[in-house]
Amino acid sequence: MSRTTQDQFIDDDEEETCPLCVEEFDLSDKNFRPCPCGYQICQFCYNNIKTTMNGLCPACRRPYDDKNIEWKVISPEE
Ligand SMILES: [Zn+2]
Ligand SMILES: [Zn+2]
């Protein structure tokens, strides 16, 4: 009973990772959208950008603002 490489690839594809630190999003990160453009990063990188970098979204260069953060609620069926 060995799984094929293809099956594993499909499984991996469902796990989303942060484009900046390549860490898997945890449950709250998956709903975390710090920018209106929808570019998704983990909360660790968001805080990192705000505190140690320029505070701009890497995708659209808009300044990050805590009041723009959206918490998307995704139903388990999707
Ligand atoms: Zn990250
Ligand atoms: Zn953006």
From TrEMBL:
It is an enzyme of class 2 (transferase). Residues 18-61 form the RING-type domain. InterPro entries: Mot2 (IPR039780), NOT4_mRING-HC-C4C4 (IPR039515), Znf_RING (IPR001841), Znf_RING/FYVE/PHD (IPR013083). It holds the Pfam family zf-RING_4. GO terms for molecular function: ubiquitin protein ligase activity. CDD domains: mRING-HC-C4C4_CNOT4 (cd16618). Its EC number is 2.3.2.27. Keywords: Acyltransferase, Metal-binding, Transferase, Zinc, Zinc-finger. The keyword DNA damage does not apply. It comes from the Eukaryota. This is Transcriptional repressor general negative regulator of transcription subunit 4. It comes from Cryomyces antarcticus.
